[in-house]
Every structure is written in C-alpha cells, then in structure tokens.
Write a structure and sequence with these properties.
By secondary structure, the chain is mainly beta. The protein is built from six helices and 59 strands. The longest helix is centred in the N-terminal third of the chain and has 11 residues.
C-alpha cells in the first residue's frame, strides 16, 4: 500500500532538487478502530491515492513564468522589475547594445547590421555576406568584429565614417573584443591552430600579436578599467588564461563545463566567469550559434560535466568561489555593480541578481515574455538593457523600481495520470485583498486550446473541483496586486482517477495438475514451481513484494486454471472464478466456482463433472485498494477445454522372437498424456517399455523394445496416463 505523496520539485542554488515523503493524515478514536477495523483498512487504502503538489520558495517558483513579479533570495514571490520594450523588433540576433554620442545602437549578428533601434529610421549599416560576433565602444567610436576576420570602426557624428581593418594576416578566426590601454583594443581568436591575442591601434590600424597558446581558440576576452588585467577563455578546453607581463598567457582556471560564455574583470582584478554545458541547446537565432555556424567546428575536450550553467569568481590569489549554478538554462552575458552581478540567461528569459562578496541565494528580478534566450546585457546609470535572441527585441528595467502589480504562472503540474483536482491553498504576507488565484487543467503537457479556460478568481483557499475539469495536468496563476504582498507557498491536492485492472491471459493447465499456495509435497506425486511465464505478470510475483509461494503438483482427477492480470495503478487485486459447460451455439450456463480471493488461480476436481466441453470465466477487481464504491472490474473467458472420463485403450500386443531376442510392440490411446508403460513375464518380473519416439508424453504413444533373454511363452503389458488410469493387453511370444 502506497503512502500519500507530497512532492516538491524545483531548482536549488546548486541544481535541481526533488523530494518525496510519505504522510498519512488520518486519525480515528480507538473504539471506531476496534469496531470498524475492516472498514478502516479499506478507507486508508482508498485515501492513499491523494497527492499533494507543493510549490514553495526558490525550489518551486523557479519553474514558473514571471510578469511584473520576482523571486527574492528568501524564496518569496513579490513585486519585481517591470520590463519595458525599447524600439522595434530587429531582423536578427543582437550581440551588442551601445550608446554613442547620445544615440542608441544595436549590433545584429546576421545579417551583419548596425541599427538605431529607437528611431523610426533604423538602418545605419547592413552587410548580408558577413557575421558580426562582438562589439564595444572606444574613443566615441563603435568597434565591431566579424568572423572574416575583420574589424569595422564606425565613427558616429555629423560626418559619419567607417574604417575596415583586415586581421587575416594575424588571425584565421576572430571571436572576441576587449578594451586595451592607450586607446587600442584586444582581439581574441585563433591562428594556425593556436589561440591568439592581437592588439589593434585605432589611430593607425596596425595589428600586433601579443601572445598565443598552442591548441586553443580564444572565444572570450575581457580587461579591467584602463585596459589592464587581460583574461582570455578558450573555446576548446574551457581554460581561463591571464596575461602576465606583456607577452605570456598563464592558465589560472579550467571550467568543468564546456564553454565559457561571459567574462568580466572586477576592480580588485578578480574575474567573473560564466560557462554553460553542451547539453544546453542554443537556437539558431542565438548569436553564439550564428557565429559558430560560419566557422569550422572545434573538437572539444571530454570531461565530467555539470549539466547546466555556473558563475564563479576567481580571485587574483587563485581562490575560486561558486556564486551561482542552474540547471536547464545558461548564462550568456553579465553586468556588475560593486555589490551585485546581473545575469542574462536562457532559455527561460530570466534576469538574475547575485551577490558578489557573500554567499546568498540568487534573486530573479524579471523575466521576458515568450521565454527566450537573453544574450546581451548592459548596465548604464541604473538602467538595465537586455536583448533576446530569437525575436531580437530590446527591454529596459530600472534598478530599484518595483512594479505595482504582477502575475506569476506556475509550471505545469503533472498528476501522473487522469485526476480530479481539489483543495488549493497558499501562504505569505499581506495577501488579504492583494492576491487573486485561478487555475486551469488539461490532458497535454503544454497548455493549448484543449485545456479548460482559467477558472474564476479564488480569493480564499478552497476546493477547485467544481472550477476546473479533470485532467492529467494543471497550472496555477497568481496575481499580486500590491508591492508589499509576498507569496511563500502554494499547495494543491489531486486524486488519481481509478484505472481498470486488465486480465491479459487465462491459462488452462493439463488434466491431472493441481495448484496450491504454500503447498508441502506429499510423499507420492511430483511437485515443481510454476514457471515465470505462468505468473510473471502477476503483481504478487515481483521481486521484493509480498508475493505468492505457489506449487503445482500431479493430482489425478484435478483441473487447474490461472489468470495473468495487471493494474496500471499498482492496486491490490482479487479474483473470482466461474465454471460453465459449453452447450449448443456456444451457450454457457455459468455456475459459481471460487468466490473472491487474492489467489489468481483455481484448482477443482474434474472427475466429479460430466464429460463435455467447458470454459472458465475469470473476474478481477481492485476493491482491496479502492473500496467497493470506486472499484473497477474486468472479466475474461478462457479457451474451451475437454473433460472426459473414457478409459484408455490399447492396440494389439505383438511379441516376436529373432536373433537379438524378443521384440515387444504395442500402441495405446487416452484423453490424457501417458506417463509410462511396462510388461510382465513369468520369471522376469517387470520390463519397462520405451516410447518409439524416445519420450513418453503424448495421449497417443507407440511402445517398442527388445528383450535379449526372454524365454517366457506369454507376456502382459500395461500403459498408464497422467490421471492414473491404465489399460492392459496380453500376447503369446511367437
């Protein structure tokens, strides 16, 4: 008997967590237990099919959708940042957001474009033959890197100009930009199977190789303020290198994940490193995917990987602090203040805020609509600007500004199979009059038009059985209508709808075999265990269960039948058997055979029945687990089988002398298989006879043997079948 299941599913700070505990919340006075013990057992069995689905704190809320609400480090759902759209959607994935001389620009990866996205006229530059992969602003110029490799320098102003710097003499592939000292910039990439850092002067466009490492490809680089403290991350190995002096790159860290996606150097020269695992699939609209698709695939080193994403801080001393880990979505860009770092993630489109200096749970400050990868994040004067991949839209949120109201939609809750949904309750602070809850349900894993509409608002905790239809899946929607209201947990009960047990097979054993539970073999007769094929599908025969100990043994005059049944809910089953004689037109008058019991078999005395054609009707139900009011029944009829009491017959017995001795031969027929035969002659005792085909096991057998030294004048032979019946014959030896 299963216990009630209380399930909490969610993402903790270190990854996914799932808990499952058993609770039975039923209490009865002693005298009721004493008087109604059987009824109580039935009621407890029925109650075990209630589930409680709990959404609580960070572990539970993380799976939902946020609009105007966020999640605090304490796991409270409350008012969050309100995201506002800026400008119009662009034609391709955005890789950079910049402000140059009061103008807002977006850099689009493919087709390579430079767009003033907040103006009605958005075109500034476009080239469909190349792919942009990184960008930055330096000396009032917008510098953009392409995979050709080439560098584009756009000077914004009244006399707009563009300069192209060829990098292919120093780089085969270019992937990352960082500010350098004295107005220059660094470019990261590869050249002749080596990871290369090159320096480009923006004044005279000269390109100088700074440092290189064999076998690497630098896909991310970053510097601190003033262009100092350069670090570079490898696409191939996930290693982080720090520039020592002016020419040497030293490895200081290797990520356990496949790819470093974002780097940032803090004021104290420590480095923030975000990385993702290869199990996270990037959309083709993602700028990382777009840029890599234009370049040869890199062979990645195999290593033990944490599925998901992580953010670490590497101190100048080499100490590594894990600040954040998540499963199922990755960090693709970051922006920091002195105390916090903001993370743009996918594929849920969530903006996180994580403390830098101390260990604390992360916060969700906002989530974009349509749940897309957030690939670009910029922070200027207290405003966060974020761009997402597939729809290429830009959003803005003011740090510290809270939405007055917001909405949260839970993840889809799976009841396991068809269920009715019952009591919905919640808890938090300042919720009276400030919360509105509704629910919807359906049969598909993702909500669609087949789902029920959202229910009418629920103001106080109550049953929703009359508000949503039965189904397998359910979703909860919460509206918070005040900035000070916070939600800590939601709880929903569901009761699984019963599924019918099914009889898959009804087996009829050969005549003369009997089945008993815990049978001890008598001195006479043969015993053997029932085969796995016979009872393998029966619930009680599973390993480690409270299974049946069953034996079958030879018992003349008995007939046995057993049923193979299963129940998708794992319910305890019981069986009833009826016996009927088949009449004309396949009509059967059923009569009671064996009343309801847990044993899926029945043995009865066939020698007490008239000869004829018979069948057995088996019924199974789950009343032991579900009770009589909710039980479901299935029935199945066996194939027809014969019961006959005719005696076996023997053909002519022949005994002929020749040079090897006396050859004895005879045939016999019966309604049951023969199990042996022998002959007797005066002075020789019993002579065992062998079947002509080598084994005695058929209702029709030919017995044949040669006896070398038989001198008797006559013999008597006898054959006997499984039911203990025998037949005799006599012959003269000629």
């Amino acid at each position: 008997m299963n216990n009630n299941n209380i399930i909490s599913i969610g993402i903790s700070r270190m990854g996914l967590a799932m808990q499952k505990t058993g609770v039975i919340n039923m209490f009865y006075p002693y005298h009721q237990i004493k008087i109604f013990f059987t009824l109580l057992i039935t009621m407890i069995a029925v109650s075990t099919y209630a589930k409680v689905h709990r959404i609580e704190g960070t572990q539970g809320f993380i799976h939902g959708e946020f609009d105007g609400v966020g999640l605090t480090g304490d796991g409270e759902l409350r008012a969050g940042a309100k995201l506002r759209k800026r400008g119009t959607a662009l034609a391709g994935p955005i890789i950079g957001l910049h402000r140059v001389k009061g103008e807002e620009f977006a850099v689009v990866a493919s087709p390579a474009s430079l767009v003033q996205y907040e103006k009605s006229t958005t075109g500034f530059y476009r080239n469909e033959d190349i792919v942009f992969v990184d960008s930055l602003v330096r000396n009032n110029a917008l510098v953009v890197l392409s995979t050709e490799p080439a560098l584009y320098i756009f000077k914004i102003g009244a006399a707009q100009a563009k300069t192209r710097v060829e990098l292919n003499t120093k780089l085969d592939g270019a992937y990352a930009l960082a500010s350098g000292p004295s107005g220059g910039i660094y470019v990261g990439g590869e050249y002749e199977s080596r990871g290369v850092i090159a320096k480009v002067s923006l004044t005279d466009s000269t390109v100088t190789q700074v440092a290189s490492v064999d076998g690497e490809t630098f896909s991310r680089i970053a510097t601190g303020r003033g262009g100092e403290n350069l670090v570079a991350a490898s696409m191939r190995t996930g290693r982080l290198y720090r520039l020592q002096g002016t020419r040497e790159l030293k490895a200081v860290y290797e990520s356990p994940l496949d790819e470093v996606t974002a780097l940032e150097v803090l004021e104290d020269a420590s480095v923030l490193v975000a990385s993702v695992d290869s199990s996270i699939e990037l959309t083709q609209a993602h700028p990382i995917a777009a840029s890599v698709s234009k370049t040869p695939k890199k062979r990645r080193k195999r290593r033990k990987a944490i599925e998901g994403s992580q953010l670490v801080r590497i101190h100048h001393s080499g100490q590594v602090d894990i600040l954040w880990q998540g499963k199922g979505h990755g960090v693709y860009d970051m922006a920091s203040t002195k105390s916090h770092v903001y993370l743009a993630t996918g594929s849920g489109g969530i903006l996180y805020r994580v403390r830098i200096a101390e260990a604390a749970a992360p916060e969700i400050i906002a989530q974009t609509e349509w749940l897309d990868e957030l690939t670009v994040l910029s922070l200027r004067q207290g405003a966060l600007r974020v761009a997402r991949a597939a729809s290429a839209e830009v959003f803005e949120a003011q740090i510290g500004e809270k939405a007055n109201a917001g909405e949260y939609r839970s993840g889809v809750i799976d009841a396991g199979h068809s269920a009715r949904f019952g009591y919905l309750s919640w808890g938090g602070k300042n919720l009276r009059g400030n919360i509105e809850v509704s629910a919807r349900s359906g049969w598909t894993r993702m909500p669609n038009k087949t789902w029920s509409p959202w229910s009418s608002p629920i103001q106080d905790a109550q049953s929703i059985d009359d508000r949503v239809q039965s189904g397998r899946f359910v979703q909860i929607r919460v509206g918070l209508k005040h900035p000070d209201a916070s939600l800590n947990w939601l709880r929903l009960t569901s009761k699984a709808m019963n599924r019918k047990p099914i009889i898959t097979r009804v087996n009829i054993l050969k005549n003369g075999w009997r089945i008993e539970r815990n049978f001890q073999a008598p001195e006479l007769g043969r015993t053997l265990s029932l085969s796995a094929d016979a009872f393998g599908e029966h619930e009680g025969q599973r390993k480690g269960s409270d299974g049946l100990s069953v034996k079958q043994f030879y018992a003349p005059g008995y007939q046995s039948v057993h049923a193979v049944a299963s129940d998708m809910d794992g319910d305890s089953l019981r069986y009833r058997f009826q016996l009927g004689r088949v009449g004309e037109g396949d009509t059967i008058a059923w009569r009671e055979g064996r009343d309801w019991g847990e044993e899926p078999y029945w043995s009865f005395q066939s020698n007490a029945l008239a000869s004829g054609t018979y069948a057995v009707l088996v019924e199974v139900d789950d009343a032991n687990s579900r009770g009589f009011s909710e039980r479901l029944t299935h029935r199945k009829r066996s194939i027809h089988f014969e019961i006959t009491h005719s005696e076996p017959v023997m053909g002519v017995v022949r005994a002929h002398r020749h040079r090897d001795g006396v050859e004895i031969r005879f045939d016999a027929k019966s309604t049951s298989p023969f199990v042996g035969a022998l002959c007797r002659a005066e002075g020789f005792g019993e002579i065992p006879m062998a079947a002509e085909d080598g084994i005695v096991d058929e209702p029709e057998e030919i017995f044949k043997d040669i006896v070398p030294t038989l001198n008797a004048a006559s013999i008597v032979c006898e054959a006997y079948d499984e039911e203990g019946r025998s037949v005799k014959g006599e012959a003269r030896v000629r």
